[in-house]
Design brief:
This protein has about 350 residues and is mostly helical. The chain is built from 16 helices and three strands. It is about 70% helix and about 5% strand. A three-stranded antiparallel β-sheet has the order 2-1-3. The longest helix is centred in the middle third of the chain and has 57 residues.
Length: about 350
């Protein structure tokens, strides 16, 4: 299938535009009519030579979609009709196109999970796998409810984490701005006054004046070096596993911000772990599927060690305890779970 850009009119005569997958122009017109629209014009999308970043669908739209789909499924509405209703009421154009493609795929014989898998970059591995488990077990409605609850919890958690870090970030910016103002403007204004007086200038004042002179003379090269260094670090972070590992280690140990980041990642992992285990996924599969929520090479290495220890026969609590990153409370709760023989 090719990706088509289209303009169409809704029943009220309003012009809407978007993108959709279609085999050809005839198929495009057929798909647009199924959406309740009248095709005005359509053509294959021209791929941009340089694409900086694909626009993402807001998390709030994904939460609403999951919650509404769960309500429809629990009410006994067939999945294809539920998706069609949500597609027609969706205001986000890109998400509307995704839902339209999923409806077509299900009509073509794919399952709900298989349709989700074609958009795994949007929904994520955990979402797709949980939908597959729900379909196979006949508990899709219950799984969707848990997914909606998890997405809402993640959204609230990230909002709280951002709120915690906003104040230190504002203070840092204010202090940095004041320091730059002193070094580049105020100190140079005071230098003639200090030199005009016939008294000895202390060492610390000499150091302050020297720093101000250096920054005043070389501020532009310093900015260039700083930007170049950031770009170099970003490049090495993507292409050098060693650099990526060291930066990830710094992120979870950095003063003030590091502990918050670590706790957020561990909380997300614990939430995913509980959700998937409750749906019947084994512990080893759960560990593998929870890797993306960590998004940290150091924590990923810790999961590798825990996974290996569990495979070798160690208990779940001992395996995660030996990793050294999980809080004692988590390890104690896992030890309680070991007593009821959690299936591996």
């Amino acid at each position: 299938m090719a990706r088509y850009q289209y303009k169409a009119a809704d029943p009220l005569g309003r012009v809407v535009s978007g993108e959709i997958d279609a085999v050809n122009e005839t198929d495009l017109e057929f798909r647009i009519e199924k959406m309740g629209l009248s095709l005005i014009a359509g053509a294959p999308r021209k791929e941009a030579r340089f694409v900086l970043r694909r626009k993402k669908i807001p998390r709030r739209d994904l939460i609403n979609f999951t919650f509404q789909l769960e309500q429809l499924v629990q009410a006994g509405v067939p999945i294809i009709d539920a998706l069609g209703d949500l597609r027609d009421s969706e205001s986000h154009q890109q998400f509307r196109d995704v839902l339209s493609t999923m409806v077509d795929q299900i009509e073509g014989g794919k399952t709900f999970a298989e349709a989700l898998r074609t958009h795994i970059e949007l929904f994520g591995k955990v979402y797709v796998y949980m939908a597959q488990v729900g379909e196979q077990s006949g508990k899709l409605g219950e799984v969707l409810y848990e997914l909606a609850d998890m997405l809402k919890w993640q959204d609230e958690l990230m909002a709280k984490a951002k709120a915690i870090t906003v104040y230190p970030a504002i203070v840092f910016c204010v202090v940095l701005s004041v320091a730059v103002f002193l070094m580049l403007y105020l100190v140079p204004q005071l230098v003639p006054f200090l030199k005009s007086n016939q008294f000895e200038i202390p060492f610390y004042t000499h150091a302050l004046i020297a720093t101000s002179n250096f920054l005043s003379a070389y501020w532009l090269p310093l900015i260039v070096v700083l930007v170049a260094s950031l770009l170099l670090v970003s490049y090495l972070n993507k292409h050098s596993p060693k650099v990526n590992y060291n930066l990830d280690k710094l992120r979870i140990h950095l003063w003030l911000v590091g502990p918050i980041s670590l706790k957020v990642k561990l909380a997300r992992f614990a939430k995913h772990f509980a959700l998937m285990y409750g749906a019947g996924v084994t512990v080893l599969e759960t560990i593998e599927l929870s890797r993306p929520v960590m998004d940290n090479a150091v924590l990923d290495e810790s999961l590798d060690r825990a996974h290996l220890l569990i495979q070798e026969g160690s208990s779940i609590s001992d395996s995660f305890g030996n990793v050294g990153l999980f809080p004692p409370l988590v390890v104690r709760m896992l030890r309680v779970g070991d007593t009821i023989q959690i299936p591996v």
